[in-house]
Specification:
The structure holds two protein chains of two kinds. Chain A is α+β, with helices and mostly antiparallel strands. Chain A is built from 18 helices and 32 strands. Chain A folds into three domains: 151 residues, Aldehyde oxidase/xanthine dehydrogenase, molybdopterin binding domain (Aldehyde Oxidoreductase, domain 4); 188 residues, Aldehyde oxidase/xanthine dehydrogenase, a/b hammerhead (Aldehyde Oxidoreductase, domain 3); 317 residues, 2-Layer Sandwich (Aldehyde Oxidoreductase, domain 4). In chain A, the strands form nine sheets. Chain A has a seven-stranded mixed sheet with strand order 3-5-1-12-9-10-11, with helices on both faces. A five-stranded mixed sheet of chain A has the order 7-16-15-14-8, sandwiched between helices. Chain A has a four-stranded mixed sheet with strand order 20-28-29-32, sandwiched between helices. The longest helix of chain A is centred in the last third of the chain and has 28 residues. In chain B, strands 2-1-5-3-4 form a five-stranded mixed sheet, sandwiched between helices. In chain B, helix 2 crosses helix 5. The longest helix of chain B is centred in the C-terminal third of the chain and has 14 residues. Chain B starts with a strand and ends in a 12-residue tail after the last helix. In chain B, 57% of the residues are buried. Classes of the chains: A alpha+beta, B alpha+beta. Chains A and B meet through helix 1 and helix 16 of A and helix 2, helix 3, helix 4 and helix 5 of B.
Chain lengths: 756, 164
């Protein structure tokens, strides 16, 4: 029999028909009887004291039902750092002080959006503007304006990672190179903006429909700030229109709609406008990066030292994790015998910076891969060879941090090398750049302080053989609903169409921490596999009793056929067996549970994906314009579960990461974002996408379900670096300041010519 | 504000309703007629998520006043399939994984349907040009381009309202 019946077969997503027919109901589409519409008034100042907020005129406007400010809340400083209260520093509706342009100060509920909008103009807020500071390297200086009283020199968090004797190793180095890089910010640009519909009923129960990556997190965070019991809150999120790291913290739409609804006992809907989405939701963390590397003349890596200053914005958000992960992934995917990282997250009077797809690793990979390219060039070593020589391998232990159990990096390098050779000599001003990367399959982080398993699943097998699968993971487009259905079908021995999926509802689904850190395939996948294995065991117990084969035979279920593994033709129908088994259990359906929490897997993640990407680009020497032609990725995500899904993740990641590399940026003027719209903020369009090729390098990851690892966020890591290196190959200039715009390329080319 | 009578045929169904003259077509479709398949990603005509057919031509329904559609025939994503029978482009999107979060998908499907109606055998470059205005943050577009190409190559024939 084939190894797999379901896994690694291309199927369309289980929610595909709902999506192509317009039937999928997003939070944006939710409408309830008596529903009111909310709007949020936001600070025009980057740093100011709130003297007084007068809502009298707004409340008097016909159609306005309620106006709330920080005074109407419990004033809880919240954050996802529930184990580290000092890092919970954001109130959402500010009481005394605002720290960025766009920070919420009041919210209105009215009969329609127009009325709510009109009421906002009638709220009078008196501010006392305070000195502001926008750049981390300014904010960290003695005497800079302080944004939080307890944060000296505006230092929010620091992170230190070290192994080996770095100073000694530098002395042994034949070649030492140091560089500064600047990594820019990036907006998530979910097509569905942040939104929520909150409905509080007089019995003290709150239901919140919202566009989120983790309904469980939002439920608990709402309970923290509203003073309700966790289980008096129900969060529903059946479809989420994109997340990319922006939707697993509590947001202003969720909080303000809940506060308004609790006041009115009526449903309140808040949808952020595209402008609010740009100006007042979180974004990718900008970083100033200092890198110093020491190598032997044959290219062997000896020591790396790096210091990073990140623009934190006004609050901690998920920035502390980005600060750690950028330090950890700076060493990836290579063996550095000694390594030292110091990271500083600095508060600034700008919108908070946080998690975004790759979570600090795209910044790390950009700087690391650009520098390795320069080192190889200086030493006259082949760029693939230097990477191969120092590549991580299965069994390698990142000292004190992690153990790599599966790693196909060298094979990825081989495959990309072949492709580059096949492309032959490049025409002038064209080049192929490469970047190697790795990423985690879910984080072993519990700053949230959940008492639950990281992932859980429940299965009920019904009388007709149909399977109810209850999962807590959140599909935001990445396809986890399909992945989980496939894992369940494979393990239980049924087909995907036999599974009825229950997701996106905290009242019905077991806890899962949500879709962040590329965790669902491995963590939720393991929980689903465990539940399915238990359900199968129960069915096989009955089948074994019925068939009574020789005790030495093992049994299994494949494609609805229960059989002896050694004699697959001897068996019985899954449907018949289930029907009889349930009758024999006094009519009780077969119920099974599964759960997963990583134990003894180091500090970071149970498993790591690896890959190498080659980007072919052409540069116009007259204008500096970069055009992407090809993007080839050799990719080790362990066993592929859903090939169509992996390809989609890869292509989507390229678009997003190429945008980070050369078109997307959030320029500011005194803390005000200058391009808060989809015309001036340039995400890639159809015409800018290169040809894409995926080369799967399959490995088997012992910790993953069926050997699978992540295939989501990690793919965002290499593109900016590979693009930067392609520009370097094409023109000889290395742009160390993201994004690599035409202006930067052109002025670097000109400067190089002048130097000559 | 005074309300006006809007007579509009949407997905072959005739409606008469009284609306404020400043209402956008996307608002009437979604809020009055309950056709929430049409999405709104920006409200400024920049993302094309709200693309629909108005008298056989694609328009961004956030940039059209509902009253401008008085007497018009409109088709939305809900009108692409006929019963359970999906249109060729819908089937091809499914097979090619040409959607992820699905929020831009309705607009993408309608733009693709229009593109193929105008030019049944487009090249890849023409497909890219035709969908240039439709923003998608999930897929990186290539699966969408493959899906449209497959329909153009005749791999999906008949069914639904694909021949608008």
């Amino acid at each position: 029999m084939a190894k797999f019946n379901v896994i690694n077969t291309p199927i369309h997503n289980v929610d595909g028909i709902a999506k192509v027919t317009g039937r999928a109901e997003y939070t944006f589409d939710v409408s309830l009887p008596q529903m009111l519409y909310g709007k949020i008034l936001r600070s025009p100042h980057p740093h100011a004291k709130i003297i007084i907020i007068d809502t009298t005129r707004a409340k008097a406007l016909t159609g306005v039902k309620a106006v709330v400010t920080g005074q109407d809340t419990l004033g809880v400083k919240q954050g996802i750092w529930r184990r580290y209260k000092e890092l919970c520093d954001e109130e959402i509706l500010a009481k005394e002080k605002v720290r960025y342009i766009g920070e919420p100060v009041a919210a209105v509920a009215a009969v329609d959006e127009d009325t709510a909008e009109e009421a906002m103009d009638l709220i009078e807020v008196e501010y006392e503007p305070l000195p502001a500071v926008f750049e981390p390297l300014e904010a960290i200086k003695e005497g800079a304006p302080l944004l939080h009283e307890n944060a000296e020199r505006n230092i929010n968090v620091t992170r230190h990672i070290e192994w080996g004797d770095v100073d000694e190793a530098f002395k042994q180095a034949d070649y030492v190179r140091e560089d500064w890089f600047r990594c820019s910010s990036q907006a998530h640009v979910c097509m569905e903006t942040h939104c929520a519909v909150s409905s509080f009923s007089p019995d003290g129960k709150l239901t919140v429909w919202t566009s989120t990556q983790s309904h469980y997190y939002i439920k608990v965070l709402l309970s923290d700030v509203l003073g309700l019991k966790e289980n008096d809150i129900r969060v529903i999120s059946r479809y989420t229109g994109g997340g990319f790291g922006s939707k697993f913290e509590l947001d202003s739409a969720q909080f303000c709609s809940a506060v308004l609804s609790m006041k009115l006992c009526k449903p309140v809907k808040i949808v952020l406008t595209r402008e609010e989405e740009f100006m007042a939701t979180k974004r990718r963390t900008p970083m100033f990066y200092y890198l110093r590397s020491g190598v032997k003349k044959d290219g062997t890596f000896l020591a790396k030292e790096c210091r990073v200053f990140t623009e934190g914005g006004a609050y901690t958000a998920m920035g502390a994790t980005a600060l750690y992960l950028t330090g950890f992934f700076q060493s990836f995917p290579y063996v550095w015998p000694s390594y030292r990282y110091d990271g500083y997250r600095v508060y600034t009077s700008t919108p908070p910076t946080s998690a975004m797809r790759g979570f600090g690793a795209p910044q790390a990979t950009f700087c690391a891969e650009m520098q390795i390219e320069l080192i190889a060039k200086e030493l006259g070593i082949d760029r693939i060879e230097i990477r191969r020589k120092n590549a991580m391998y299965a069994g390698y232990e990142v000292p004190g941090q992690a153990t790599i159990q599966s790693c196909g990096l060298v094979e990825c390098l081989d495959r990309v090398e072949e492709w580059i050779k096949d492309r032959g000599k490049m025409p002038p001003y064209s080049g192929i750049g490469i970047a190697a990367y790795g990423f985690m399959s879910g984080g072993i982080f519990n700053w949230f302080d959940t008492p639950y398993a990281f992932s859980s699943a429940v299965i009920q097998v019904n009388i007709d053989g149909k399977v109810d699968l209850f999962i807590g993971s959140q599909d935001m487009g990445q396809g986890s609903n399909t992945t989980m259905s496939m894992i369940c079908a494979e393990e239980l021995g049924v087909r995907v169409e036999d599974i009825r999926l229950h997701m996106g509802d905290t009242d019905k689904c077991p806890v899962d921490l949500g879709a962040w850190g590329s965790r669902e395939t491995l963590m939720q996948g393991n929980a689903v596999k465990m539940a399915a294995a238990d359900a199968k065991r129960q069915i096989l117990e009955y089948a074994a009793a019925k068939m009574s084969p020789n005790i030495v035979y093992d049994m299994d279920i494949k494609d609805r056929w229960i059989h002896l593994i050694a004699r697959p033709e001897r068996g019985l129908s899954y449907f018949d067996a289930v029907k009889e088994a349930i009758r024999g259990k006094d009519g009780q359906p077969i119920v099974a549970r599964g759960h997963y929490t990583p134990h003894r897997k180091g500090m970071i993640s149970p498993a790591y994906s690896f890959g190498v990407q080659a980007v072919e680009a052409a540069v116009d020497p007259e204008t500096g314009k970069v055009r992407l032609k090809n993007c080839v990725t050799a990719h080790d995500c362990g066993q592929v579960i859903n090939p169509l899904g992996v390809q989609g993740q890869l292509e989507g990641a390229i678009a997003m990461a190429a945008g980070y590399g050369f078109t997307e940026d959030l320029p500011m003027d005194d803390g005000k974002i200058l391009n808060p719209n989809l015309v001036d903020y340039k995400i890639l369009r159809t015409t800018e996408m290169p040809e894409t090729t995926v080369m799967e390098v399959e490995t088997y990851e012992p910790e993953g379900p069926f050997g699978a690892k992540e295939a989501g966020e990690g793919l965002t890591n290499p593109t900016a670096g590979a693009l930067g290196n392609a520009v370097f190959q094409a023109t000889g200039v290395s742009i160390k300041d993201l994004p690599i715009t035409s202006e930067k390329v052109l002025s670097a080319i000109r400067a190089k010519k002048t130097k000559k | 504000m005074e309300k006006f009578l809007l007579r509009i045929t949407v997905n072959d169904e005739y409606h008469e309703l009284y609306i404020k003259p400043k209402k956008l077509l996307v608002e009437v479709l979604r809020d009055e007629l309950g056709l929430t398949g049409t999405k709104r990603g920006c409200n400024t005509g920049a993302c094309h998520a709200c693309t629909i057919f108005l008298n056989g031509k694609t328009v961004k329904s956030c940039s059209v006043l509902a009253m401008q559609a008085d007497g018009a025939e409109v088709r939305t994503v809900e009108g692409l399939a006929e019963g359970a029978e999906l249109s060729p482009i819908q089937r091809s999107f499914l097979d090619h994984g040409a959607y992820q979060c699905g929020f831009c998908t309705s607009g993408m499907l309608l733009s693709a349907t229009a593109l193929l109606a105008e030019n049944p055998t487009p090249t890849v470059e023409e497909i890219k040009e035709g969908l240039h205005g439709n923003l998608c943050r999930c897929t990186g577009y290539n699966s969408i381009i493959r899906a449209v190409k497959a329909v153009a190559e005749g791999k999906y024939k008949g069914g639904g309202n694909g021949e608008i």
